[in-house]
Design a protein that fits this description.
GO terms for molecular function: inositol-polyphosphate 5-phosphatase activity. This is Endo/exonuclease/phosphatase domain-containing protein. The chain is an alpha+beta fold and 206 residues long. It has one domain. It has helices at residues 6-24, 44-54, 96-101, 116-119, 164-170, 174-178, and strands at 33-37, 58-63, 69-75, 81-86, 89-91, 137-140, 145-148, 158-162, 181-184, 197-200. The chain has a four-stranded antiparallel beta sheet with strand order 2-3-4-5, with no helix packed on it. The longest helix has 19 residues, at 6-24. It is globular, with a radius of gyration of 20 Å.
Length: 206
C-alpha cells in the first residue's frame, strides 16, 4: 500500500466532512453530484520507486546542513539525471511531458488512488478516468507549445463524483448509458494551469 502523506490525509478528512454534511442535510436519499478541484495527487513515492526500477536508476538524497531532506535525484547507469524532485520541482527531464501524456495518462493511472476510499468504498462514484492529468499546464516559451509544468507532479486534481441515486438516472436505459462522457475540456488547447473536467450525461427525470 503506497505511503499516505500528511496532505493526502488532510484531503481525505475534508472529503469525509463533505460526506457527513450531505447526510446531515438530509440529502442521503437525493441525487447528489460533487464536482471541483479536489487537489487529488498521485502516490508519488510509489511512482518514484517504480521509475528507479524500470530505468535501472540510482537514487541520491540531498540534505541540508541540519539533515533535512531537500531533494531526490535519480541517475541512470551513465550518470545522467533522469528525475529530480525538490520542494517546488518534479522533473522527469527529457521525457516529462511525453510520459504524462502517453496513452492519455494511462501510464500513471495506477498511482491515482487518493480518492479510492471514497469511490471504491461506494460512498461516491466516478466514471473511469481515460483522460490525461488535469493539472499543471504551461506554455513552453521556446516552442510556444503547451506542456506539463515541472513545479509539481501532474495529477488528476479535478474530478466529478456522484452518488448511486444519480447513477441510476444516468443509466435508466442502454441509450443514455452509451451517451456518458467524462473527460477534459479543451484537451488540446491551453486554457490555464488546470484543465476543467466535464461529465456529460442524459438524465431521466422520473
Amino acid at each position: 500500500m503506497p505511503e499516505t502523506t500528511k496532505a493526502a490525509r488532510l484531503r481525505r478528512s475534508q472529503i469525509d466532512i463533505l460526506l457527513k454534511e450531505i447526510e446531515s442535510e438530509g440529502l442521503k436519499d437525493d441525487s447528489v453530484l460533487v464536482a471541483g478541484a479536489f487537489n487529488a495527487q498521485l502516490f508519488e513515492t510509489h511512482l518514484l520507486s517504480d521509475m528507479a526500477s524500470t530505468q535501472r536508476a540510482t537514487s541520491y538524497a540531498r540534505k541540508s546542513s541540519d539533515g533535512r531532506l531537500e531533494g531526490i535525484e535519480q541517475r541512470d547507469r551513465r550518470g545522467r539525471s533522469v528525475l529530480t524532485v525538490e520542494t517546488h520541482r518534479f522533473d522527469l527531464h527529457s521525457i516529462h511531458d511525453w510520459f504524462f501524456r502517453l496513452g492519455r495518462g494511462q501510464m500513471v493511472k495506477k498511482y491515482n488512488g487518493e480518492l479510492a476510499q471514497v469511490v471504491f468504498g461506494g460512498k461516491l462514484l466516478e466514471e473511469s478516468v481515460f483522460f490525461q492529468p488535469s493539472r499543471h499546464y504551461g506554455i513552453n516559451k521556446a516552442t510556444e507549445k503547451e506542456e506539463f509544468m515541472k513545479n509539481l507532479c501532474p495529477a488528476w486534481a479535478d474530478r466529478v463524483l456522484y452518488n448511486e441515486k444519480l447513477s441510476d438516472l444516468f443509466r435508466h436505459d442502454s441509450f443514455c448509458a452509451s451517451g456518458l462522457y467524462y473527460g477534459l475540456v479543451a484537451e488540446k488547447k491551453y486554457v490555464g494551469q488546470h484543465k476543467p473536467v466535464a461529465l456529460h450525461a442524459t438524465i431521466c427525470l422520473k
